[in-house]
Structures are given as structure tokens and as C-alpha cells.
Structure of Plastocyanin-like domain-containing protein:
Amino acid sequence: MSDPAAHPLIVEAGERVRLDFVNRSTMWHPMHLHGHTYQLAADGPRKDTVIVLPKKTVSVAFDADNPGQWMLHCHNAYHAEAGMMAVLGYRA
Ligand SMILES: [Cu+2]
């Protein structure tokens, strides 16, 4: 497995960030972001985990308001251990 910290997703403090979770698999993936809550659609609920159904895409948006390094991963532990994880970091 590659080191997720080797290629972090970099955001700028204060920006509004959109994440598109594209599920090309046939499994459910509860995608979880640490350190932030994200919004589903323009006026949707704020959550830190969203289930991405098979063959579906879910777009979320969050405010980059908590500098640090944060994990973004599937909440199925065996998926995360298989590599479904990334590190979100802030531009220095
Ligand atoms: Cu998963």
C-alpha cells in the first residue's frame, strides 16, 4: 500500500473546497473526513461521513477552516486498510 501522506490533497486556509466522491465500484463506501464537516448540496445537512452508493457520485463542500493534516478515508476498516485513505493538508 502506498503512503497516503506521500501525496496529500492540499487546500488553502479559508477557501471553500468541493470534494467529488466517485464510486466506480459495486460496494458502498461511507466516506469520512476528519477535522471538518461538509455540506451535501447547497443547503443540505452538514456531516462528516457520507455513504457513496455503488456507481454513484456524491459531491460535498466544506470550509477549510481547521489547518492541520487530516485523514480522508472510507469508514469500512478493511477498505481503508486496502488503501482507501488520503491525507488532506493545508498549504504552508
Ligand atoms: Cu469503502
Notes: Residues 73 and 85 are 4 Å apart (CA to CA). The chain has one domain: 4-90.
